[in-house]
Every structure is written in structure tokens, then in C-alpha cells.
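Thread: quick sanity check before group meeting

JM: Hey all, I'm pulling together slides for Thursday and realized we never actually wrote out the predicted structure for the chain we discussed last week. Dropping the sequence here so it's in one place. If anyone has concerns about the input, flag it before I start.
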Amino acid sequence: MITFFLNVLPVIVILFIVCCVNLVRKYKKKPNINLYRWINISVYLIEIYITTTVINFLINHKTFMEYGNPLDLLHLVSDFILAFTIYQFLINIILQIWDGVVIDGYISMKRVANLFLLQLKNKPDCMNDQLKNLNDKLTNDLRADCFNADQRKIVKEIQFQIENYVKGELSTEGCSDFLERTLLDIEHSIEFLNLRWQSSLFLKLLK
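JM (edit): ok, ran it. Output follows.
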């Protein structure tokens, strides 16, 4: 029982700190960027402690708190580095594959928006043909189920706004502004997925 308590004590302490910082950030009128930094650091420390402890237990059948002998310090450091390396290797592969599918979806949407914007500037009379082409691709090659929920909303919004333009309910300037803003949002989403902290599973879930 005491060993179990010692194993979870670091997690409890870090969680307490995170909760306190979150409360300060929530009720503070002008949150400081340092608060976000401390929260991210604390969450990452929790993640590293939990995951490396689990991995080390699976490999060596003991937790880091069970390295009681001072002579075991070298073994503790080497086992921690090994567990941390394994976790980072696995999480990077998993997240790269997971996010890669989402990024592919955004790249496809970016191409669609750019094609509409190009068509709008050069051949606005052919926008209806471009819309039919998009609908055909969504039916056949570029199926809607290839996108996540957020991406499907963007695709539907593109279809809706282009249909409004074809019907004459949306001006050329309004349509161009919508497509440019959509491209900015897509670029932001791609950059967001490529941030370095994405190698942290806990931070990714919190975001």
C-alpha cells in the first residue's frame, strides 16, 4: 500500500499544481502566457512519468519508486531513458499516421478552395461546372467519409456558398472573401497539427 502511494504521489502533486494554475488562469482577467507554459510543462511531466513507469514495469516488472538502493541510480536512469525513448518512438509514429490522414484531408480541401478561387478570378461563368465537378468527386473519388467532422462542415460550407454565388445570392467579392478566409483557416489547421507539442498525447487531447 505504501509503495503504491509513493508511486502515485508525484502524479497527485503535479495534478494539484495543474489544477491550481488552471483556477488562477480561469479567474484571472488577463491570463499570462507563463501560466499556459507551466500547465503544458506540468501536463507533459505527468504524461512522461505515467507512460515511462508503465513501460518500465512491463519490461522490468517494477516501478521507478522500487529502485531503493543508491547503487541502482545508474540502472534507474538507463531504464528511464529506455522507457522514454520507446514511448517517444511509439507516440511519434502513431500521431504522425493519425494526423497525417487529417492533414491529407485539409490538403485536398485547400486544393478545392484554390480551384474555386482561381475559377472565380478567371472564369466566373464556369463556377457551376466546377461545383458539379466537386460534387462528382465527393460522390466517387473524394468521398465525404474521408474527412473528419470539422472538415465535412467546411466542405458543406464551400458547397453552400458556391451554390449561393451561382444563384446570384452572393457577390463575387463576398465569394472571394469567403474562399480566402477558408484557405486561411485550412492553413492554420495544418500548422496547428504540425506543432512540435503534438508529440505529447496528453497535450494533444487537452488542445
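AS: nice. Residues 103 and 191 are 9 Å apart (CA to CA). The radius of gyration is 25 Å.
JM: adding both to the slides.
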